[in-house]
Predict the 3D structure of the following.
Amino acid sequence: MPPADPATAAWFATHVQPHEPALRAWLHARFPAVPDHDDIVQDAFTRVLRQHERGEVQSAKALLFTAARNLALDALRRRGVTPTIAITDFGESCVLEATPDAATTLNHQQELAILTEAVRALPDRCRQVVMLRHLEGLSYKEIAAQLGISPETVKVQLVKGLRRCAAHFAARGLLREPPPGIKESSA
């Protein structure tokens, strides 16, 4: 069911549809017992469109995946499916889980905290550009239109932000050396 409104259709094509392949792959991996992933994808699209019409969508991708997760869980509840694994299905790979150990998890959390610290330390405009590019996946032109700046300014701010983040990482030992032309004290 494509949106009737051309503006909504354009928004849907730009912000929602590009995530469909990733959503399908995620559903197949995460909810293999759900019989029809196509229905869940379509229902998730419908929920995102309804929220968009109400003006309540901040992140289309996050809402899409959340809606799909909730729909899949509802489908499993309705069917009364609880995941069961026969004792004969255990093999060598099931004995040791592939999940990271506590040290790896702690290291990842520390690196994430340093990344958050680096992004928060960026000047406002620079931080906006970096987040729109790397979290929202927007193009230079889309960022420029959203922020009312030129695409060249977007490029300059993005390079500035990435260099400052790299210097921040280098100062904290996450990079062996800072990028060329960046002093460690500039973090």
Observations:
- The first helix runs from residue 6 to 15.
- The chain is about 65% helix and 0% strand.
- Residues 6-79 form one domain.
